[in-house]
Design a protein that fits this description.
This is Conserved domain-containing protein. InterPro entries: Bac_photo_RC_H_C (IPR014747), DUF2382 (IPR019060), PRC-brl_dom (IPR027275), PRC_barrel-like_sf (IPR011033), Stress_Response_Assoc (IPR052967). Pfam families: DUF2382, PRC. With 261 residues, this protein is of the alpha+beta class. The protein has a domain of 131 residues: SH3 type barrels (Roll). Helices cover 14% and strands 13% of the residues. It has six helices and seven strands; from the N terminus they run αββββββααααβα. Strands 1, 2, 3, 4, 5, 6 and 7 form a seven-stranded mixed β-sheet that branches. A hairpin with a 6-residue loop joins strand 2 and strand 3. The relative contact order is 0.12. About 11% of the residues have low confidence.
């Protein structure tokens, strides 16, 4: 049970549901007009924390800077849209009854539930006298002006998994051609006249005879060898690229017309 003495601590706390899911930061606390006990609190929800939603404090428990409320996060997300700034510091019985119905709150011993479940056609002055009021501003009163509200579209981004890329190594075969110079020997007939230098070899044999002389020829041929050598290292990295996308949505706004009678 949250008490008035805990209100300053509530403003700095964060709301969680019974399963431990974070709901949002507490902004304002509303009191029961008749008992002055904390009845509702507003919590910042939504993608940017810009939406302010009412949560019940009956059965809530303050644990340090965590306020555990007796309703699930999904219930808070679907709660009735009531503009705290448009309530001028107070909730009407019709608004409180709507919150009670949404959160399935039981009838309170003080009869507050019955009072706030009043018919929507009840006189406006009685609505002013019995609605929940915001604790930091005292009891609010309605003037002769009408508040017009409208929804605003807030667009943000969130990161999600878009796919996976895998490195895979496999072997392919390709033809490689290279040009290499090769050499070979060929016969060349050399003739030299008889001279004093070779006369002895020239007359060493018979004058007329048959003879043979053989020369071995040599030639180069290409030889191919293969070896495996590392050539580079490949790894996967990521980089962020930014592009523009257009998104849209429907927003509601109130219009005020005059009706003369």
């Amino acid at each position: 049970m949250v008490t008035q003495e805990q209100i300053p601590s509530l403003i700095d706390s964060t709301a969680y549901d019974p399963s431990g899911d974070k709901i949002g930061a507490i902004k304002q606390v509303y009191l029961d007009d008749r008992t002055d006990q904390p009845q509702f609190a507003t919590v910042h929800t939504g993608l940017f924390g810009l939406r302010e939603t009412f949560v019940p404090l009956d059965g809530a428990e303050l644990r340090g800077d965590r306020l555990v409320v007796p309703v699930d996060k999904s219930q808070v997300k679907d709660a009735p849209r009531i503009d705290p700034d448009g309530s001028e510091g107070a909730l009407t019985p019709t608004q409180v009854a709507e919150l009670y119905r949404h959160y399935h709150l039981p009838t309170t011993p003080s009869g507050t539930r019955d009072t706030y479940a009043a018919d929507v056609d009840r006189d406006t002055d009685r609505d002013r006298d019995h609605g929940g009021r915001r604790s930091e501003h005292g009891t609010g009163r309605t003037d002769d002006a009408m508040t017009r509200s409208e929804e605003r579209l807030h667009v943000g981004t969130e990161t999600h998994e878009a796919g996976q890329v895998r490195l895979r190594k496999h072997v392919v075969t390709e033809n490689v051609q290279k040009t290499v110079p090769v050499s070979h020997e060929r016969v060349r007939v050399e003739r030299e006249p008889i001279s004093e230098a070779n006369r002895e070899q020239a007359f060493s044999g018979p004058a007329i005879s048959e003879a043979e002389h053989e020369v071995t020829l040599h030639a180069e041929k290409p030889v191919v060898e293969k070896e495996a050598v590392p050539v580079e290292r490949v790894r996967l990295g990521t980089e962020t690229v930014t592009e523009e996308q257009t998104v849209g949505g429907q927003v509601r706004k109130e219009r005020i017309d005059t009706d003369e009678r």
